[in-house]
Amino acid sequence: MEITFLQPEGLVRSPAFSHAAVVPAGAATIYVGGQNGVDASGIVVSDDVAEQSLRAVANARLALEAAGASLADVVQWSVLLHVDADLGAAYGAIAPQLAREGAPPLVTAARVAGLGVPGALIEVSAIAAVLP
User: Fold this and answer.
1) Rounded to two decimals, what is the model's pTM?
2) Each residue of 46-74: pLDDT tens digit?
3) For residue 69, which of 132, 5, 2 has the smallest C-alpha distance?
């Protein structure tokens, strides 16, 4: 039993994302709500998008670990990035942490005019699956 990531012919091939994933019955599904680059008290860690991105992923990792999962178990990431933030700096900071064996997870990304946390430049959420 395994999770299968699909990069079908006729769709763009990217090392950064897959297009679909098949999670077999019996896998535990973990949903991680939006995580910003904030510390444990809710304060934005920096006005630098790279630093915020690292912290947002670290916060997602903590939530995943609390549910018995890891970054490697993520099937899909959703990323909201403030329209004025540097996408290259954000992705460059977190890409090494998200790298894994095999096909990459699914990714949905959007540029937004603002986020719910004042000063936040990025918000990530995730769906993970853990096989029994």
Assistant:
1) 0.94
2) 999 999 999 999 999 999 999 999 999 99
3) 132
